[in-house]
Request: fold
Amino acid sequence: MIECSYCGARHEAGGVENWSSGAETVRIFTSRTVIACIESKRGERWICEECYVKRAFRGLDPAEKAEVHYQMGLEYRDRSNPRAALTCLRKSLGYRKHADTLAALASCYARIGRADSARRYYLDALKLDPCHFMATENLAKLSAGGPAEAKRRIGDD
Reply:
């Protein structure tokens, strides 16, 4: 069971998935309900969907708020709710511009069929981090020109 750091509600754990980019494998926690985890100055903090909606995390600093919005955006995206994810991810960008957030926004736009917006956000992510794996791979899929084409397009604006 996972406990929300804000309201104390307990949430049933779902499991752990292994995600790999070839050289690196990351273990990703999954839950049965929408709940996100961030590392804050006070340690690991869990926030449930209800507390997110109520903005129970108001006391966090701007970087931590950006991370809450980003993590909730990923939760919604991974639960096939790209429109809710877009809302969260845009809020995260309001606090800080980060390649991971831009790439996540792009993947949401791709999922709702807005390839031009997806392409623009992947390129923006690559401007911040030219080696961003997700942006490079997914832009290549959009472009159908492979990773070399995706990297070439970074400076095309």
